[in-house]
Amino acid sequence: MSMIFGVPLAVLAGQLLIGVINGAFYALLSLGLAVIFGLLKIINFAHGAMYMLGAMSTVILFDSLGVNYWVALFLAPLLVGAVGVVIEYFLLRRIAGQDHIYSLLLTFGVALLLGGVLTNIYGVSGLRYAMPDVFQGGMKLGFMFLPYYRLWVIVMALLVCFGTWFMIEKTKLGAYLRAGTEDSQLMQGFGINVPLLISLTYGFGVMLAAFAGVLAAPIYSVTPVMGSHILITVFAVVVIGGMGSIGGAIITGILMGVIEGLTKTFYPPASSAVIFLVMVVVLMFRPSGLFGKEA
Amino acid sequence: MTQPVNQTEIQKAILEQQSADNRKKMILNGVLLLLLLAAPFAMYPVFLMKILCFALFAVAFNLLFGFTGLLSFGHAAFLAAGGYTTGYLLSNFSGLTTELGIIAGTVAATVLGLGFALLSIRRQGIYFAMVTLALSQLVFFFLVQSEFTGGEDGMHGIPRGHLFGLVDLSDNYNLYYFVLAVFLGCYLLVQRIVSSPYGQVLKAIKQNEPRAISLGYNVNRYKVLAFVISAALAGLAGSLKSVVFQLASLNDAHWHMSGEVILMTLVGGMGTLLGPVVGATFVVNIEYQLSQGPLRDWVDPILGGIFVITVLAFRSGIVGEIQKFVKKNLG
């Protein structure tokens, strides 16, 4: 067995793979945060709760209605997206124009509420979700074993990330979104329904989180608190990447996942803290983040 | 009613009005003080001390959030830094008197606060909140991984010891009056800070930072100092708490705690002196009442609901709304 810095290659490769997968989740989640932040200037503290809702609804839909994975892949994000639109319409819209801090606090309250209610109903021990049969097994790459489902997660996450980037940066709808960010009043003057655009944007950002939740359901333990754990890490990822760019959110997400995986291989005790340490270093030398535009 | 006719009479009338206001305030404060002194004979002292510790925590947080306009989402780190330091020292050095342990805890939180401040001050608004949250998570991981903190279990059986080596603090009444004295001292300190020229600059920064900069104030230095003072007082609250309950747990460092202190300040009334005290009393009581009843598992969602309602419907909080009401109807 070949060794790299005293670590077997297979172990290193395995940890790197886990890192890339975690990174794919970070990327999807920070992308959703970036989209919501871009148009609404809201830090969506309920993002973790939406990710959790995506995973929970996948399991619940299967257990109660027998909805399979492929349907859930579309249905769960749509349901959660609808929840997001409701939250935007009935709650966030009422404090539009107030200090942005209030929207952060409001979504924090929503996260507490959702997490608490689901904890009471389903407990914190975690629901089990069987992996679809197609994904059983994996392929041998010589130096490591690659489970099919992990491959699927990486491919899907990258596809969705790229699709979102393409939609926002290259299409007409994306141009509207970006214009709405610049000057929403002028946009309204051009006859574009900005409030609707805002609702849909929030819904879409939340759908990205829920989609990540569905992808996570077969491999992570599905609990009502799964969102709050990952959310703070994603916040750190966002600070490292800088909120300015969509592409930055994606690249930073995957990069941080890999760094976390490497740390787990070479110095395990620091693995849960390493992203936060990177954040500290980035803040010292580039306060606006790696890809941030603002001064 | 005589109409004041010239300048001196108007001034006199204003002065009289002010001294009447002051007299009212002093009477009110006197009554409150008497109530606080008598409280342990009517209620369980440990419960009262819990309220006082959280009230101090919220007062500290409010100095930063309410008066300077900086939302820290990482204040749990200071509460824990104070609590764990004091707990560790009092448990391992039996010669140490309690007040020295508490001072050491406060110093630890102060140093940590300086580190947080220097890093987070580079970002503003919601970024500031995210940076402080992430930094406090770092502290949380440190406390989980370290040996001396007891990891997941936290610290138990921290001795209360003797104040100045003389007063036995294992007696709940002695401890209560000690905690009360510390709390009142800190409250008056914050009151003094807020009304000082320095406090005025903080308020100016909150209202319009670019303007404060253009007036020549070194805004970042003011912010860092406010952050450090706030962290120190939060650490002091944590130190007191670990002495009162004789334990330091990971709950103190968890970001839920950072959220809770925001809730206390917001519900009570941010930017008012009494608000955080009222808010802490309210939240601690609600948590206690709920934990006794059939809704014991619903504390989190209910707090979340209160959060949502407060942000949507009354952002000035209990004290803020009362002040508004008084101004409108009686002023």
UniProtKB/TrEMBL annotation, chain A:
One of its GO terms (biological process) is amino acid transport. The keyword Electron transport does not apply. One of its GO terms (molecular function) is transmembrane transporter activity. It is a multi-pass membrane protein. Keywords: Amino-acid transport, Cell membrane, Membrane, Transmembrane, Transmembrane helix, Transport. It holds the Pfam family BPD_transp_2. It is found in: Cell inner membrane. One of its GO terms (cellular component) is plasma membrane. The chain crosses the membrane at residues 12-35, 42-62, 68-92, 104-129, 149-168, 196-220, 232-259, 266-285. It comes from the Bacteria. InterPro entries: ABC_transp_permease (IPR001851), BCAA_transport_permease (IPR052157). Belongs to the binding-protein-dependent transport system permease family. LivHM subfamily. PANTHER family: ABC TRANSPORTER ATP-BINDING PROTEIN, BRANCHED-CHAIN AMINO ACID TRANSPORT SYSTEM PERMEASE PROTEIN LIVH. This is Branched-chain amino acid ABC transporter permease. It comes from Marinobacter guineae.
From TrEMBL, chain B:
One of its GO terms (molecular function) is branched-chain amino acid transmembrane transporter activity. CDD domains: TM_PBP1_LivM_like (cd06581). Keywords: Cell membrane, Membrane, Transmembrane, Transmembrane helix. The chain crosses the membrane at residues 26-47, 54-80, 100-119, 126-144, 173-190, 224-249, 261-286, 298-318. InterPro entries: ABC_transp_permease, LivM-like. GO terms for cellular component: plasma membrane. It is a multi-pass membrane protein. It is found in: Cell inner membrane. PANTHER family: ABC TRANSPORTER ATP-BINDING PROTEIN, HIGH-AFFINITY BRANCHED-CHAIN AMINO ACID TRANSPORT SYSTEM PERMEASE. This is Branched-chain amino acid ABC transporter permease. It comes from Marinobacter guineae.
